[in-house]
Design goal:
With about 180 residues, the protein is α+β, with helices and mostly antiparallel strands. It has a seven-stranded mixed sheet with strand order 1-2-3-4-5-7-6, sandwiched between helices. The longest helix has 12 residues. The two termini are about 20 Å apart.
């Protein structure tokens, strides 16, 4: 098994969309979603192209098969909802310059527990080395994602509630994950 990570392009969109859609966990119970993790929101080719043309989409592949994906976007592109609230919390925590949004991120079930998130973070860190911080939100009901992001050393910088759902905001510096 050799997992390589690269910045994805238009030809990768079907694989990226399949990973994201498969990670939504819509057919799972709330308990299963909490334990396995889930991706919020829905994505299509047009929405994904917006990520491709900014800070990027990073695709992990194991011998050419999709193993995981991480999306990033400029903080100033965050609209309403959880992305915008995440940026507000990050700014209140003192993260005001050189910030980008990280996520969603997902790992294919067959590759979980194999360090794919760290590999994705290393690629993001390499490509976005000129940024000072990545910030992300995790719904509190997503126990798996909370555990993964805490385990890799991200810092909890605040919380918010949106549409009756509670979220944690984490940050990291690209230098934490550079090889």
């Amino acid at each position: 098994m050799t997992i390589l990570v690269r910045k994805s392009g238009p030809a990768d969109r079907p694989a990226v969309l399949a990973l994201l859609d498969g990670a939504r966990g819509l057919d799972l119970t709330p308990e299963e979603r909490a334990a396995q993790g889930f991706v919020q929101g829905s994505f299509d080719e047009e929405k994904l192209s917006g990520f491709d043309t900014t800070t990027g989409v990073y695709l992990a592949e194991d011998d050419g098969e999709p193993a995981g994906v991480a999306l990033t976007s400029p903080a100033d592109s965050a609209g309403d909802g959880p992305p915008g609230r995440t940026v507000e919390v990050a700014r209140a925590a003192g993260l005001t310059e050189g910030v980008f949004l990280y996520g969603p991120v997902t790992v294919a079930p067959a590759h979980r527990g194999q360090g794919v998130v760290r590999l994705l973070l290393a690629a993001v860190a390499e490509h976005l080395a000129d940024h000072t911080a990545g910030v992300l939100f995790v719904e509190r009901a997503n126990e798996k994602s909370l555990a993964v992001h805490t385990h890799v050393g991200m810092k909890h910088v605040g919380d918010f509630t949106h549409a009756g759902r509670e979220y944690a905001v984490f940050s990291f510096t690209p230098a934490q994950f550079r090889a």
